[in-house]
Design a protein that fits this description.
Layout: E1 7-14, E2 19-24, H1 27-35, H2 41-44, E3 49-57, H3 60-71, H4 75-83, H5 86-93, H6 98-104
Antiparallel strand pairs: 1-2, 1-3
Length: 105
């Protein structure tokens, strides 16, 4: 049943400027839960929070998969996503691992 529901991945900016990434089937309700201190342990002690980014998906499992992807990103990459800076996002997505970099030349 839940797999056929729309899903959202979202990023919140906490009062201390930390970023929190989550996913939900009810975006507005989830933001209200975070604001009231009932959203997550991470955000409840960093109130208030501000919604700074979200994406909508046809299925919640797609949103959850995207949430896990974004959670692994650096802060700089998340900020580029939030700002819609595709050039910076692409630059930060380039692998600089030496074992991969030497084969790209």
């Amino acid at each position: 049943m839940f797999l056929n529901m729309k899903g959202y991945v979202y990023i919140l900016r906490c009062y201390d400027d930390r970023l929190y990434t989550g996913s939900t089937i009810h975006l507005q309700r989830r933001i209200e839960e975070h604001q009231s201190g009932n959203g997550s342990n991470f955000t409840k002690c960093r109130l208030p929070v501000t919604l700074v980014y979200f994406e909508e998906y046809n299925r919640i499992d797609q949103a959850f998969k995207r949430e896990k992807q974004i959670q692994r990103w650096s802060r700089g990459k998340k900020e580029a996503l939030i700002q819609g800076n595709e050039e910076e996002l692409h630059k930060l997505a380039t692998c600089l691992n030496l074992t991969h970099y030497k084969f790209k030349k």
